[in-house]
Amino acid sequence: xxxxxxxxxxxxxxxxxxxxxxxxxxxxxxxxxxxxxxxxxxxxxxxxxxxxxxxxxxxxxxxxxxxxxxxxxxxxxxxxxxxxxxxxxxxxxxxxxxxxxxxxxxxxxxxxxxxxxxxxxxxxxxxx
Length: 128
What we know:
alpha/beta; globular; 5 strands; five-stranded parallel sheet; single chain
């Protein structure tokens, strides 16, 4: 995966997309305390409406299982409008579509299974 580019203050602009408010609040708090600039969206629809290919985030943390538009559909739609994709970390307890291996093979996308320890999230972000 292509590394994220750190800002001059060693922070990243991270977007969290998850329909569970508890998760978005927890991740926003955790990542903000580590100095990152965090924007949250409660749905794939809201994220896609706000996304700008000209100014993409340094990292997108994206839940797979969401109503209306799931995370894999978000990736499909981003792929159609943006090249290259920003680095994406998919998070989920399961992939009901069984498309995860195909999506991960595209590159710039990794996966972290829920539930995960916040330290595991930090390690994954550092690896990206």
